[in-house]
């Protein structure tokens, strides 16, 4: 490891120490000093996108990054997608009587099966229980799980250059048996049943194990198809299955085959919602996470050392579980 990487890791360690110190101080501090480090009553705040009437407003909520629940405390290198925070913002927008419409601005390659389903269910709940329209706009990516959460939207607007589609489920693992043999490494596994170490990286997968895992993938895929079939009235189940073979589409291609309704940007989506629901002159606000000092440290640290961390593989070791996961995820 060269000197540059040692310096980068040293900076990361120093920032970690500073962050921990501030956390300790904030727990014993009082008055305004405590307020510098802790969030207010809400973990988000509103920023005006377009000024107007505060009765019948439109809320914009960004969904950016891999859809994965990593917990409330995401550590030093936080600053990306926060699943619980996003769900909470969506819930509060649905409950707020002053908000008449919601636009979710999606930029994600997808993510976890469970997390994607939770967002989907929250959107449907808002539509059915609060009777509010929910639009989805697509940025650079709205693939796999990104399309899963978009499917129930009342209207989907994609940029012509958006990468979307990738409808399907993936589960991956590595096999290191040959490498282990070359290095003279032997593995001993004690297990309670023949399938306890299914998809182990230290041996070949059996036909029975592949059949078990394939049945799970097929079940999740059928759910994906059902979600799109229920959300897109213009597509039959058979058409969804034909389109959902894992391929990606540009925004223009997705529009041509009926996966999205319009081509445009967030500004176009706002205009369409205003016109369709009589919200001309309404205020448009963007829900954004409240600033936290420890998140600032995390973003700063990531900007300094992220390339080195990725190069060393430390980031994956810290954030990825050992067990394989079924994902609605587009992988390049």
TrEMBL record:
CDD domains, per database record: S49_Sppa_N_C
Superkingdom: Bacteria
Annotated SUPFAM superfamilies: ClpP/crotonase
Key words, A-Z: Hydrolase, Protease, Serine protease
InterPro entries named in the record: ClpP/crotonase-like_dom_sf, Pept_S49_SppA, Peptidase_S49, S49_SppA_C
Peptidase S49 domain: residues covered: 128-279
Sequence similarity: Belongs to the peptidase S49 family.
Protein name in the entry: Signal peptide peptidase SppA
Encoding gene, per UniProt annotation: sppA
